Predict the 3D structure of the following.
Amino acid sequence: MIDLQNVEKTYFSKNGDVHALKKTNLHINAGEIFGIIGLSGAGKSTLIRCINMLETPTAGKVFVDGQELTAMRNSELRKARQNIGMIFQHFNLLASRTVYDNIAFPLEIQGIDKAVIKQKVEPLLELVGLTDRRDHYPSQLSGGQKQRVGIARALASNPKILLCDEATSALDPQTTKSILELLRDINKRLNLTIVMITHQMQVVKDICDRVAVIEHGSIIEEGSLLDLFTNPQTATTKEFISTINNVELPAILKNTKIFPDYQPNTTPIIRISFIGNSAGDPLISTLIKNYSVDVNIIYGNIDSIKDTPYGTMVVELSGTKDNMETAISYLQERNLKIEVLGYVARND
Amino acid sequence: MSPEMINLLLKSFGETCYMVAASTLLAVLVGLPLGVILTVTRRGHILPNAAINSILGAIVNATRSTPFIILMVAIIPVTRLIVGSSIGTTAAIVPLTISAAPFVARIIESSLLEIDPGVIEASQSMGASPMQIITKVLLPEAMHSIVLGVTLAIISLIGYSAMAGALGGGGLGDLAIRYGYQRFRMDIMIATVVILIAQVQIVQSLGNYISAKLNKTKL
Ligand SMILES: Nc1ncnc2c1ncn2[C@@H]1O[C@H](COP(=O)(O)OP(=O)(O)OP(=O)(O)O)[C@@H](O)[C@H]1O
Ligand SMILES: [Mg+2]
Protein backbone atom coordinates (compact mmCIF):
# COMPACT_ATOMS: atom_id res chain seq x y z
CA MET A 1 0.00 0.00 0.00
CA ILE A 2 2.84 2.34 0.90
CA ASP A 3 6.29 1.92 -0.54
CA LEU A 4 9.22 4.16 0.21
CA GLN A 5 12.25 3.56 -2.01
CA ASN A 6 15.57 5.08 -0.96
CA VAL A 7 13.78 8.09 0.46
CA GLU A 8 16.00 10.78 1.94
CA LYS A 9 15.26 14.15 3.44
CA THR A 10 17.82 16.79 4.21
CA TYR A 11 16.93 20.22 5.56
CA PHE A 12 19.36 22.76 4.20
CA SER A 13 20.03 25.77 6.34
CA LYS A 14 22.73 28.32 6.95
CA ASN A 15 23.72 26.73 10.24
CA GLY A 16 24.43 23.41 8.58
CA ASP A 17 22.37 20.73 6.89
CA VAL A 18 20.21 18.36 8.89
CA HIS A 19 19.96 14.84 7.52
CA ALA A 20 16.56 14.24 9.12
CA LEU A 21 15.94 11.08 7.12
CA LYS A 22 18.73 8.93 5.71
CA LYS A 23 18.22 6.50 2.85
CA THR A 24 15.04 4.72 3.90
CA ASN A 25 13.19 1.78 2.43
CA LEU A 26 9.86 0.87 3.90
CA HIS A 27 6.94 -1.23 2.81
CA ILE A 28 3.58 -1.02 4.54
CA ASN A 29 0.89 -3.54 3.65
CA ALA A 30 -2.76 -2.77 2.99
CA GLY A 31 -4.95 -3.09 6.07
CA GLU A 32 -2.21 -3.22 8.66
CA ILE A 33 -1.51 -0.89 11.53
CA PHE A 34 2.12 0.04 11.20
CA GLY A 35 3.89 1.72 14.08
CA ILE A 36 6.95 3.92 13.82
CA ILE A 37 8.60 4.54 17.15
CA GLY A 38 11.58 6.68 17.99
CA LEU A 39 12.85 9.28 20.38
CA SER A 40 12.30 12.99 19.91
CA GLY A 41 14.17 14.28 16.88
CA ALA A 42 14.66 10.81 15.42
CA GLY A 43 12.91 11.81 12.20
CA LYS A 44 9.47 10.29 12.74
CA SER A 45 7.50 13.32 11.64
CA THR A 46 9.77 13.81 8.67
CA LEU A 47 9.19 10.21 7.62
CA ILE A 48 5.41 10.29 7.90
CA ARG A 49 5.22 13.68 6.19
CA CYS A 50 7.13 12.25 3.24
CA ILE A 51 4.35 9.70 2.79
CA ASN A 52 1.82 12.38 1.85
CA MET A 53 4.49 14.71 0.52
CA LEU A 54 3.88 17.49 3.01
CA GLU A 55 7.65 17.25 2.97
CA THR A 56 9.22 16.75 -0.44
CA PRO A 57 11.93 14.08 -0.18
CA THR A 58 15.39 15.20 -1.24
CA ALA A 59 15.85 11.84 -2.97
CA GLY A 60 13.99 8.61 -3.57
CA LYS A 61 10.52 7.60 -4.58
CA VAL A 62 7.23 7.44 -2.69
CA PHE A 63 4.50 5.08 -3.89
CA VAL A 64 1.06 5.07 -2.37
CA ASP A 65 -1.60 2.69 -3.63
CA GLY A 66 0.45 1.99 -6.75
CA GLN A 67 0.89 5.66 -7.70
CA GLU A 68 4.21 7.42 -7.55
CA LEU A 69 3.61 10.62 -5.58
CA THR A 70 7.13 11.88 -6.17
CA ALA A 71 6.42 12.04 -9.92
CA MET A 72 3.17 13.98 -9.67
CA ARG A 73 2.30 17.53 -10.55
CA ASN A 74 0.76 19.63 -7.77
CA SER A 75 -2.81 19.21 -8.97
CA GLU A 76 -2.43 15.42 -9.22
CA LEU A 77 -0.83 15.35 -5.80
CA ARG A 78 -3.78 17.19 -4.26
CA LYS A 79 -6.10 14.60 -5.75
CA ALA A 80 -3.95 11.76 -4.44
CA ARG A 81 -3.92 13.29 -0.97
CA GLN A 82 -7.68 12.85 -0.73
CA ASN A 83 -6.88 9.15 -0.41
CA ILE A 84 -4.58 9.75 2.55
CA GLY A 85 -6.12 11.02 5.77
CA MET A 86 -3.95 12.53 8.45
CA ILE A 87 -4.40 13.33 12.15
CA PHE A 88 -2.10 15.43 14.29
CA GLN A 89 -0.81 15.74 17.82
CA HIS A 90 -2.40 19.17 18.22
CA PHE A 91 -5.51 18.26 16.24
CA ASN A 92 -5.25 21.27 13.88
CA LEU A 93 -8.98 21.88 13.67
CA LEU A 94 -10.42 25.04 12.17
CA ALA A 95 -11.37 27.18 15.16
CA SER A 96 -13.97 29.18 13.23
CA ARG A 97 -15.92 26.09 12.18
CA THR A 98 -18.25 23.89 14.16
CA VAL A 99 -17.59 20.18 14.64
CA TYR A 100 -19.94 19.43 11.75
CA ASP A 101 -18.29 21.98 9.45
CA ASN A 102 -14.82 20.75 10.34
CA ILE A 103 -15.74 17.23 9.30
CA ALA A 104 -17.41 18.60 6.17
CA PHE A 105 -14.32 20.62 5.22
CA PRO A 106 -12.43 18.02 3.13
CA LEU A 107 -15.63 17.25 1.23
CA GLU A 108 -16.32 20.93 0.70
CA ILE A 109 -12.95 21.47 -0.92
CA GLN A 110 -13.71 18.60 -3.28
CA GLY A 111 -16.78 20.54 -4.39
CA ILE A 112 -19.24 17.94 -3.15
CA ASP A 113 -22.93 18.81 -2.93
CA LYS A 114 -24.25 20.00 0.47
CA ALA A 115 -26.86 17.24 0.70
CA VAL A 116 -24.29 14.55 -0.09
CA ILE A 117 -21.93 16.04 2.50
CA LYS A 118 -24.67 15.78 5.11
CA GLN A 119 -25.15 12.10 4.33
CA LYS A 120 -21.45 11.51 4.87
CA VAL A 121 -20.86 13.68 7.93
CA GLU A 122 -23.75 12.41 10.03
CA PRO A 123 -22.62 8.76 10.17
CA LEU A 124 -19.11 9.98 10.93
CA LEU A 125 -20.38 12.01 13.87
CA GLU A 126 -22.06 8.84 15.02
CA LEU A 127 -18.89 6.77 14.54
CA VAL A 128 -16.79 9.05 16.71
CA GLY A 129 -19.59 9.58 19.23
CA LEU A 130 -20.00 13.33 18.81
CA THR A 131 -23.53 13.61 17.41
CA ASP A 132 -24.61 15.75 20.33
CA ARG A 133 -21.66 18.09 19.81
CA ARG A 134 -22.18 18.77 16.13
CA ASP A 135 -22.74 22.51 16.55
CA HIS A 136 -20.00 23.09 19.09
CA TYR A 137 -16.78 24.86 18.24
CA PRO A 138 -13.36 23.25 18.86
CA SER A 139 -12.67 25.60 21.78
CA GLN A 140 -15.64 24.01 23.55
CA LEU A 141 -14.26 20.47 23.30
CA SER A 142 -11.85 18.40 25.36
CA GLY A 143 -8.62 17.11 23.82
CA GLY A 144 -10.06 13.65 23.26
CA GLN A 145 -13.14 15.08 21.60
CA LYS A 146 -10.99 17.28 19.38
CA GLN A 147 -9.01 14.25 18.25
CA ARG A 148 -12.27 12.45 17.49
CA VAL A 149 -13.23 15.36 15.25
CA GLY A 150 -9.78 15.08 13.66
CA ILE A 151 -10.35 11.39 13.00
CA ALA A 152 -13.82 11.96 11.55
CA ARG A 153 -12.46 14.73 9.34
CA ALA A 154 -9.62 12.50 8.14
CA LEU A 155 -12.09 9.73 7.30
CA ALA A 156 -14.59 11.96 5.49
CA SER A 157 -13.16 11.47 2.03
CA ASN A 158 -12.99 7.66 2.43
CA PRO A 159 -9.20 7.45 2.45
CA LYS A 160 -7.40 4.14 2.15
CA ILE A 161 -4.67 5.28 4.49
CA LEU A 162 -4.65 7.15 7.77
CA LEU A 163 -1.43 8.80 8.92
CA CYS A 164 -1.24 9.57 12.64
CA ASP A 165 1.54 11.83 13.87
CA GLU A 166 1.67 11.50 17.67
CA ALA A 167 -2.11 11.41 17.63
CA THR A 168 -2.38 10.51 21.31
CA SER A 169 0.64 12.30 22.74
CA ALA A 170 -1.38 15.25 24.01
CA LEU A 171 -3.96 13.05 25.72
CA ASP A 172 -4.20 11.39 29.11
CA PRO A 173 -3.84 7.57 29.33
CA GLN A 174 -7.58 6.94 29.60
CA THR A 175 -8.40 9.09 26.58
CA THR A 176 -5.46 7.61 24.69
CA LYS A 177 -6.95 4.20 25.23
CA SER A 178 -10.33 5.20 23.87
CA ILE A 179 -8.80 6.88 20.83
CA LEU A 180 -6.68 3.79 20.14
CA GLU A 181 -9.75 1.59 20.43
CA LEU A 182 -11.52 3.81 17.94
CA LEU A 183 -8.57 3.55 15.54
CA ARG A 184 -8.42 -0.21 15.87
CA ASP A 185 -12.16 -0.40 15.30
CA ILE A 186 -12.02 1.62 12.07
CA ASN A 187 -8.97 -0.30 10.93
CA LYS A 188 -11.01 -3.52 11.13
CA ARG A 189 -14.28 -2.09 9.91
CA LEU A 190 -13.01 -0.12 6.94
CA ASN A 191 -9.88 -2.17 6.29
CA LEU A 192 -7.98 1.07 6.62
CA THR A 193 -4.18 1.07 6.53
CA ILE A 194 -2.93 3.03 9.52
CA VAL A 195 0.55 4.45 10.06
CA MET A 196 1.13 5.45 13.68
CA ILE A 197 4.01 7.63 14.73
CA THR A 198 4.68 7.62 18.44
CA HIS A 199 7.28 7.75 21.14
CA GLN A 200 5.07 5.75 23.50
CA MET A 201 5.68 2.00 23.50
CA GLN A 202 2.29 1.46 25.08
CA VAL A 203 0.60 2.81 21.96
CA VAL A 204 2.57 0.48 19.72
CA LYS A 205 1.86 -2.46 21.96
CA ASP A 206 -1.86 -1.77 22.06
CA ILE A 207 -2.63 -1.61 18.39
CA CYS A 208 0.24 -2.11 15.96
CA ASP A 209 0.72 -5.19 13.78
CA ARG A 210 4.20 -4.30 12.64
CA VAL A 211 6.68 -1.82 13.95
CA ALA A 212 9.74 0.05 12.79
CA VAL A 213 12.18 1.66 15.20
CA ILE A 214 13.80 4.83 13.94
CA GLU A 215 16.91 6.47 15.30
CA HIS A 216 18.99 9.39 13.97
CA GLY A 217 17.05 9.31 10.70
CA SER A 218 17.45 5.60 10.01
CA ILE A 219 15.18 2.65 10.56
CA ILE A 220 17.26 0.43 12.82
CA GLU A 221 14.82 -2.39 13.36
CA GLU A 222 11.60 -3.55 11.79
CA GLY A 223 9.33 -6.52 12.30
CA SER A 224 6.12 -7.90 13.70
CA LEU A 225 5.13 -6.56 17.07
CA LEU A 226 5.61 -9.96 18.66
CA ASP A 227 9.09 -10.41 17.21
CA LEU A 228 10.11 -7.01 18.36
CA PHE A 229 8.86 -7.62 21.85
CA THR A 230 10.25 -11.06 22.34
CA ASN A 231 13.44 -10.71 20.39
CA PRO A 232 14.62 -7.10 20.27
CA GLN A 233 17.89 -6.67 18.40
CA THR A 234 19.01 -3.18 19.27
CA ALA A 235 19.64 -1.38 22.52
CA THR A 236 17.14 1.32 21.59
CA THR A 237 14.37 -1.20 21.06
CA LYS A 238 15.19 -2.91 24.34
CA GLU A 239 15.05 0.47 26.01
CA PHE A 240 11.61 1.13 24.58
CA ILE A 241 10.35 -2.26 25.65
CA SER A 242 11.67 -1.78 29.14
CA THR A 243 9.48 1.30 29.49
CA ILE A 244 6.47 -0.95 29.70
CA ASN A 245 7.91 -4.36 30.52
CA ASN A 246 9.86 -5.03 33.61
CA VAL A 247 13.06 -6.57 32.26
CA GLU A 248 15.19 -5.71 35.22
CA LEU A 249 15.78 -8.07 38.07
CA PRO A 250 13.00 -8.18 40.63
CA ALA A 251 13.63 -5.82 43.52
CA ILE A 252 14.20 -8.54 46.11
CA LEU A 253 17.22 -9.81 44.17
CA LYS A 254 18.81 -6.40 43.84
CA ASN A 255 20.78 -6.68 47.07
CA THR A 256 21.68 -10.32 46.70
CA LYS A 257 25.02 -11.47 45.35
CA ILE A 258 24.49 -13.17 42.03
CA PHE A 259 27.10 -15.54 40.61
CA PRO A 260 27.26 -15.82 36.84
CA ASP A 261 28.04 -19.58 37.00
CA TYR A 262 27.01 -22.51 39.10
CA GLN A 263 28.72 -22.68 42.48
CA PRO A 264 28.24 -25.33 45.13
CA ASN A 265 25.21 -24.56 47.27
CA THR A 266 23.63 -22.11 44.87
CA THR A 267 20.34 -22.23 43.01
CA PRO A 268 19.62 -20.85 39.56
CA ILE A 269 17.43 -17.83 38.95
CA ILE A 270 15.65 -18.22 35.67
CA ARG A 271 13.56 -15.83 33.63
CA ILE A 272 10.93 -17.58 31.56
CA SER A 273 9.18 -15.59 28.84
CA PHE A 274 6.29 -17.15 27.06
CA ILE A 275 4.11 -16.14 24.17
CA GLY A 276 0.73 -17.32 23.02
CA ASN A 277 -0.49 -20.82 23.70
CA SER A 278 2.40 -22.06 25.79
CA ALA A 279 1.18 -19.65 28.42
CA GLY A 280 -1.55 -22.16 29.16
CA ASP A 281 0.71 -25.20 29.81
CA PRO A 282 1.03 -26.56 33.34
CA LEU A 283 4.70 -25.72 33.41
CA ILE A 284 5.41 -25.38 37.09
CA SER A 285 3.62 -28.54 38.13
CA THR A 286 5.46 -30.52 35.43
CA LEU A 287 8.78 -29.28 36.79
CA ILE A 288 7.89 -30.27 40.31
CA LYS A 289 6.34 -33.62 39.47
CA ASN A 290 8.63 -34.90 36.72
CA TYR A 291 11.94 -33.30 37.56
CA SER A 292 11.89 -33.35 41.35
CA VAL A 293 12.81 -29.70 41.71
CA ASP A 294 11.15 -27.05 43.79
CA VAL A 295 10.03 -23.87 42.11
CA ASN A 296 9.91 -20.60 43.95
CA ILE A 297 8.20 -17.85 41.97
CA ILE A 298 9.92 -14.53 42.55
CA TYR A 299 8.17 -12.41 39.97
CA GLY A 300 5.38 -12.96 37.50
CA ASN A 301 3.53 -10.87 34.98
CA ILE A 302 1.13 -11.75 32.20
CA ASP A 303 0.16 -9.17 29.64
CA SER A 304 -1.07 -9.26 26.10
CA ILE A 305 0.38 -7.88 22.92
CA LYS A 306 -2.69 -7.08 20.87
CA ASP A 307 -4.57 -10.37 21.37
CA THR A 308 -1.66 -12.66 22.15
CA PRO A 309 -0.90 -13.41 25.78
CA TYR A 310 2.68 -12.65 26.69
CA GLY A 311 4.28 -13.21 30.04
CA THR A 312 7.45 -13.14 32.06
CA MET A 313 8.20 -15.07 35.18
CA VAL A 314 11.31 -15.15 37.31
CA VAL A 315 11.73 -18.33 39.32
CA GLU A 316 14.27 -19.87 41.60
CA LEU A 317 14.82 -23.63 41.23
CA SER A 318 16.08 -25.84 43.95
CA GLY A 319 17.02 -29.51 43.96
CA THR A 320 20.05 -31.62 43.17
CA LYS A 321 22.45 -30.21 40.59
CA ASP A 322 21.53 -32.93 38.07
CA ASN A 323 17.82 -32.43 38.56
CA MET A 324 18.13 -28.72 38.08
CA GLU A 325 20.12 -29.17 34.88
CA THR A 326 17.58 -31.55 33.34
CA ALA A 327 14.80 -29.23 34.44
CA ILE A 328 16.48 -26.33 32.66
CA SER A 329 16.97 -28.33 29.49
CA TYR A 330 13.32 -29.38 29.67
CA LEU A 331 12.36 -25.70 29.77
CA GLN A 332 14.70 -24.90 26.92
CA GLU A 333 13.10 -27.51 24.69
CA ARG A 334 9.72 -25.91 25.09
CA ASN A 335 8.56 -22.97 23.02
CA LEU A 336 9.79 -20.66 25.72
CA LYS A 337 12.49 -18.15 26.08
CA ILE A 338 14.70 -19.14 28.97
CA GLU A 339 17.40 -16.99 30.45
CA VAL A 340 19.49 -18.09 33.39
CA LEU A 341 20.05 -14.79 35.13
CA GLY A 342 22.55 -16.18 37.60
CA TYR A 343 22.94 -18.23 40.72
CA VAL A 344 22.25 -17.18 44.28
CA ALA A 345 23.28 -18.78 47.52
CA ARG A 346 20.83 -21.31 48.88
CA ASN A 347 19.07 -20.08 51.91
CA ASP A 348 17.99 -23.39 53.40
CA MET B 1 -27.16 77.44 17.40
CA SER B 2 -29.16 78.48 14.37
CA PRO B 3 -30.89 75.88 12.20
CA GLU B 4 -28.57 77.02 9.44
CA MET B 5 -25.55 76.01 11.48
CA ILE B 6 -27.11 72.67 12.40
CA ASN B 7 -27.71 72.02 8.71
CA LEU B 8 -24.10 72.85 8.02
CA LEU B 9 -22.95 70.45 10.72
CA LEU B 10 -25.14 67.67 9.34
CA LYS B 11 -23.90 68.26 5.82
CA SER B 12 -20.28 68.16 6.98
CA PHE B 13 -20.92 65.04 9.02
CA GLY B 14 -22.40 63.42 5.91
CA GLU B 15 -19.32 64.38 3.91
CA THR B 16 -16.98 62.92 6.49
CA CYS B 17 -18.97 59.69 6.55
CA TYR B 18 -18.89 59.55 2.77
CA MET B 19 -15.13 60.09 2.59
CA VAL B 20 -14.38 57.57 5.32
CA ALA B 21 -16.79 54.92 4.04
CA ALA B 22 -15.68 55.17 0.42
CA SER B 23 -11.98 55.21 1.23
CA THR B 24 -12.33 52.33 3.72
CA LEU B 25 -14.13 50.26 1.13
CA LEU B 26 -11.54 51.01 -1.53
CA ALA B 27 -8.63 50.56 0.87
CA VAL B 28 -9.91 47.12 1.88
CA LEU B 29 -10.52 46.25 -1.75
CA VAL B 30 -6.87 47.03 -2.53
CA GLY B 31 -5.35 46.14 0.86
CA LEU B 32 -6.96 42.73 1.25
CA PRO B 33 -5.44 41.07 -1.81
CA LEU B 34 -2.19 42.92 -1.11
CA GLY B 35 -2.11 41.63 2.46
CA VAL B 36 -2.91 38.09 1.31
CA ILE B 37 -0.12 38.20 -1.28
CA LEU B 38 2.33 39.62 1.27
CA THR B 39 1.48 36.67 3.53
CA VAL B 40 1.38 33.70 1.19
CA THR B 41 4.54 34.68 -0.70
CA ARG B 42 6.58 34.64 2.49
CA ARG B 43 9.21 31.97 2.87
CA GLY B 44 7.72 28.73 4.10
CA HIS B 45 4.15 29.82 3.41
CA ILE B 46 1.85 28.31 0.80
CA LEU B 47 3.13 30.17 -2.28
CA PRO B 48 6.65 31.35 -1.41
CA ASN B 49 8.00 33.95 -3.82
CA ALA B 50 10.82 36.13 -2.57
CA ALA B 51 10.77 38.55 -5.51
CA ILE B 52 7.07 39.43 -5.33
CA ASN B 53 7.21 39.59 -1.56
CA SER B 54 10.11 42.01 -1.36
CA ILE B 55 8.89 44.27 -4.19
CA LEU B 56 5.38 44.59 -2.74
CA GLY B 57 6.82 44.97 0.74
CA ALA B 58 9.02 47.85 -0.42
CA ILE B 59 6.10 49.65 -2.11
CA VAL B 60 3.93 49.25 0.97
CA ASN B 61 6.68 50.54 3.25
CA ALA B 62 7.39 53.53 1.01
CA THR B 63 3.73 54.56 1.00
CA ARG B 64 3.40 54.06 4.72
CA SER B 65 6.42 56.15 5.56
CA THR B 66 5.20 59.17 3.56
CA PRO B 67 3.29 61.58 5.83
CA PHE B 68 -0.32 61.94 4.76
CA ILE B 69 -0.14 65.67 4.09
CA ILE B 70 2.81 65.23 1.75
CA LEU B 71 1.26 62.22 0.07
CA MET B 72 -1.89 64.18 -0.56
CA VAL B 73 -0.09 67.04 -2.23
CA ALA B 74 2.32 64.79 -4.09
CA ILE B 75 -0.39 62.79 -5.80
CA ILE B 76 -2.52 65.73 -6.90
CA PRO B 77 -1.86 64.94 -10.59
CA VAL B 78 -3.04 61.36 -10.03
CA THR B 79 -6.14 62.59 -8.24
CA ARG B 80 -6.91 64.99 -11.08
CA LEU B 81 -6.50 62.14 -13.55
CA ILE B 82 -8.91 59.88 -11.67
CA VAL B 83 -11.65 62.26 -10.48
CA GLY B 84 -11.08 65.15 -12.85
CA SER B 85 -10.41 67.62 -10.03
CA SER B 86 -8.09 67.89 -7.09
CA ILE B 87 -10.46 69.67 -4.73
CA GLY B 88 -13.66 68.37 -3.15
CA THR B 89 -14.93 65.51 -1.11
CA THR B 90 -14.66 62.93 -3.87
CA ALA B 91 -11.15 64.07 -4.74
CA ALA B 92 -10.10 63.53 -1.12
CA ILE B 93 -11.00 59.86 -1.39
CA VAL B 94 -8.01 59.19 -3.67
CA PRO B 95 -5.22 60.15 -1.23
CA LEU B 96 -7.16 58.66 1.68
CA THR B 97 -7.39 55.34 -0.12
CA ILE B 98 -3.79 55.37 -1.21
CA SER B 99 -2.58 56.01 2.30
CA ALA B 100 -4.95 53.52 3.97
CA ALA B 101 -4.54 50.60 1.57
CA PRO B 102 -0.97 49.68 2.59
CA PHE B 103 -1.95 50.07 6.24
CA VAL B 104 -4.83 47.64 5.70
CA ALA B 105 -2.47 45.30 3.83
CA ARG B 106 -0.08 45.13 6.79
CA ILE B 107 -2.96 44.64 9.21
CA ILE B 108 -4.31 41.76 7.16
CA GLU B 109 -0.84 40.28 6.82
CA SER B 110 -0.28 40.27 10.57
CA SER B 111 -3.73 38.77 11.19
CA LEU B 112 -3.09 35.99 8.70
CA LEU B 113 0.31 35.25 10.19
CA GLU B 114 -1.32 34.55 13.54
CA ILE B 115 -2.92 31.41 12.13
CA ASP B 116 -1.38 28.18 13.38
CA PRO B 117 0.76 26.68 10.59
CA GLY B 118 -0.57 23.27 11.67
CA VAL B 119 -4.04 24.23 10.47
CA ILE B 120 -2.68 25.21 7.06
CA GLU B 121 -0.78 21.96 6.91
CA ALA B 122 -3.89 19.97 7.81
CA SER B 123 -5.72 21.62 4.91
CA GLN B 124 -2.86 20.78 2.58
CA SER B 125 -2.97 17.18 3.74
CA MET B 126 -6.63 17.09 2.68
CA GLY B 127 -5.73 18.27 -0.80
CA ALA B 128 -6.78 21.93 -0.53
CA SER B 129 -5.41 24.21 -3.25
CA PRO B 130 -3.66 27.47 -2.32
CA MET B 131 -6.76 29.44 -3.36
CA GLN B 132 -8.97 27.24 -1.17
CA ILE B 133 -6.59 27.66 1.73
CA ILE B 134 -6.83 31.44 1.33
CA THR B 135 -10.60 31.64 1.04
CA LYS B 136 -11.65 28.79 3.31
CA VAL B 137 -8.92 28.71 5.93
CA LEU B 138 -6.83 31.86 6.21
CA LEU B 139 -9.49 34.53 5.81
CA PRO B 140 -12.28 32.89 7.89
CA GLU B 141 -9.87 31.91 10.66
CA ALA B 142 -8.40 35.42 10.81
CA MET B 143 -11.65 37.33 10.27
CA HIS B 144 -12.15 38.37 13.90
CA SER B 145 -8.67 39.79 14.00
CA ILE B 146 -9.03 41.43 10.55
CA VAL B 147 -12.20 43.19 11.75
CA LEU B 148 -10.31 44.75 14.64
CA GLY B 149 -7.56 45.85 12.27
CA VAL B 150 -10.00 47.41 9.82
CA THR B 151 -11.65 49.21 12.75
CA LEU B 152 -8.28 50.72 13.51
CA ALA B 153 -7.94 51.74 9.85
CA ILE B 154 -11.39 53.41 9.87
CA ILE B 155 -10.47 55.40 12.94
CA SER B 156 -7.27 56.68 11.43
CA LEU B 157 -9.19 57.49 8.25
CA ILE B 158 -11.58 59.64 10.30
CA GLY B 159 -8.56 61.57 11.47
CA TYR B 160 -7.01 61.86 8.02
CA SER B 161 -10.33 62.86 6.50
CA ALA B 162 -10.38 65.90 8.78
CA MET B 163 -6.96 66.80 7.46
CA ALA B 164 -8.00 66.22 3.85
CA GLY B 165 -11.10 68.30 4.51
CA ALA B 166 -9.02 71.22 5.67
CA LEU B 167 -7.32 71.19 2.28
CA GLY B 168 -10.61 71.75 0.48
CA GLY B 169 -12.28 68.40 0.84
CA GLY B 170 -15.25 69.36 2.98
CA GLY B 171 -16.37 67.38 5.99
CA LEU B 172 -16.11 68.10 9.71
CA GLY B 173 -12.44 69.03 9.62
CA ASP B 174 -13.09 71.64 6.99
CA LEU B 175 -16.01 73.03 9.03
CA ALA B 176 -13.95 73.23 12.20
CA ILE B 177 -11.22 75.18 10.40
CA ARG B 178 -13.45 77.54 8.46
CA TYR B 179 -15.94 78.41 11.21
CA GLY B 180 -14.37 77.35 14.47
CA TYR B 181 -10.86 78.61 13.78
CA GLN B 182 -11.14 81.37 11.21
CA ARG B 183 -14.43 82.88 12.44
CA PHE B 184 -13.91 82.19 16.15
CA ARG B 185 -17.10 80.11 16.44
CA MET B 186 -16.24 78.17 19.58
CA ASP B 187 -19.62 76.40 19.58
CA ILE B 188 -19.00 74.98 16.10
CA MET B 189 -15.50 73.92 17.07
CA ILE B 190 -16.80 72.07 20.12
CA ALA B 191 -19.69 70.49 18.18
CA THR B 192 -17.37 69.09 15.49
CA VAL B 193 -14.96 67.71 18.06
CA VAL B 194 -17.80 66.07 19.99
CA ILE B 195 -19.16 64.50 16.81
CA LEU B 196 -15.71 63.21 15.86
CA ILE B 197 -15.21 61.70 19.31
CA ALA B 198 -18.64 60.06 19.24
CA GLN B 199 -17.96 58.72 15.76
CA VAL B 200 -14.70 57.10 16.84
CA GLN B 201 -16.33 55.60 19.94
CA ILE B 202 -19.17 54.10 17.94
CA VAL B 203 -16.86 52.67 15.28
CA GLN B 204 -14.60 51.12 17.92
CA SER B 205 -17.49 49.60 19.88
CA LEU B 206 -19.05 48.21 16.74
CA GLY B 207 -15.71 46.75 15.66
CA ASN B 208 -15.18 45.15 19.06
CA TYR B 209 -18.68 43.71 19.02
CA ILE B 210 -18.42 42.19 15.53
CA SER B 211 -14.95 40.82 16.23
CA ALA B 212 -16.10 39.17 19.46
CA LYS B 213 -19.05 37.61 17.61
CA LEU B 214 -16.70 36.17 15.01
CA ASN B 215 -14.11 34.93 17.50
CA LYS B 216 -14.86 31.28 18.22
CA THR B 217 -11.68 30.66 20.17
CA LYS B 218 -13.14 32.26 23.29
CA LEU B 219 -16.60 30.91 23.94
N1 LIG C 1 11.92 22.44 8.76
C1 LIG C 1 13.05 21.98 9.31
N2 LIG C 1 14.21 22.61 9.11
C2 LIG C 1 15.37 22.15 9.64
N3 LIG C 1 15.46 21.06 10.40
C3 LIG C 1 14.33 20.38 10.65
C4 LIG C 1 13.07 20.81 10.13
N4 LIG C 1 12.12 19.93 10.54
C5 LIG C 1 12.77 19.02 11.29
N5 LIG C 1 14.08 19.28 11.36
C6 LIG C 1 15.11 18.47 12.06
O1 LIG C 1 15.02 17.14 11.60
C7 LIG C 1 15.18 16.21 12.65
C8 LIG C 1 13.99 15.26 12.71
O2 LIG C 1 12.84 16.00 13.04
P1 LIG C 1 11.43 15.34 13.19
O3 LIG C 1 10.45 16.43 13.39
O4 LIG C 1 11.18 14.42 12.05
O5 LIG C 1 11.59 14.50 14.55
P2 LIG C 1 10.53 13.64 15.34
O6 LIG C 1 11.06 12.26 15.40
O7 LIG C 1 9.18 13.83 14.76
O8 LIG C 1 10.61 14.30 16.78
P3 LIG C 1 9.44 14.60 17.83
O9 LIG C 1 9.14 13.32 18.53
O10 LIG C 1 10.06 15.60 18.75
O11 LIG C 1 8.26 15.15 17.08
C9 LIG C 1 15.37 17.04 13.91
O12 LIG C 1 16.75 17.09 14.18
C10 LIG C 1 14.85 18.40 13.55
O13 LIG C 1 15.53 19.40 14.23
MG1 LIG D 1 7.34 14.81 15.43
